[in-house]
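The instructor's notes for this session suggest beginning with a concrete chain rather than abstract definitions. Hand out the sequence below and ask the class to guess, before any prediction is shown, which regions might be ordered.
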Amino acid sequence: MTPPTKPICKLLWQDYARVSKISAEEHLYTKPDIDATLDRINTVNYHETIVLSKCGTKITAYRAGHVLGACMFLVELTNGIRVLYTGDYSTDMDRHLPSAELPPAPVHVLIVESTYGTQQHEPRQERERRFLQAVHEVVRQGGKCLLPVFALGRAQELILLLEEYWRANPLLKNVPIVYATPLANKSLKIMETYVNMCSEQVIEQANNHVNTFRSMQHVTNVSEPSGVDWETKVMNPNTACVVLCAPGMLQSGTS
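After discussion, reveal the predicted structure:
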């Protein structure tokens, strides 16, 4: 895995151990297990090649564009066969991440995640237009729009999309956007640490001493569903708002 993937794994594994509703005896793993696993992880950078000494097989990491640090692996066997292995990937340029990159040489075998393998997505601009239209309609009527999200990945992209839309629509300036998850600030700190692996837009702003994820005018990060921001912006029955909460599957937690 790449350097940012290691702290992301630690964050997600610890969160699982924290929120699990099962007894300690039935946990799949515990904090000592997490620590022991992290000690055994060796990270690789994009375009770095590892050569397996016993067989001569070469493994090179390339950017997958799915979430921060996600990579695909090109495996080159000594007989000339090239295998590309990847989980989720994205060929679209995000606001916060660059897109997946293609290895420099054709591959003979492709092993790929295929959740949407048989579907054809509509153009991204159309998806974003419909999403923003739906959100706008809810808050226009004074409602509260709940967006269940995962703490890392789509959440950051949606936050930047909403911030962009709010800035372009002054009538929405008094409608708060709240990102409410215990992992919110921890996830953002990882993004900030590895800003050099984010999109050109984020890198350019960082070079100008602007923190993309901390300079938003309309988004408030709250670590717990409590406190002044939560009570005044979310729980107030007279206030329209947008709330991004984890987990994305609605099975537990704030969402």
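Then share the key points. The domain at 124-245 is CATH 3.40.50.10890 (Rossmann fold). The first strand starts at residue 49 and ends at 51.
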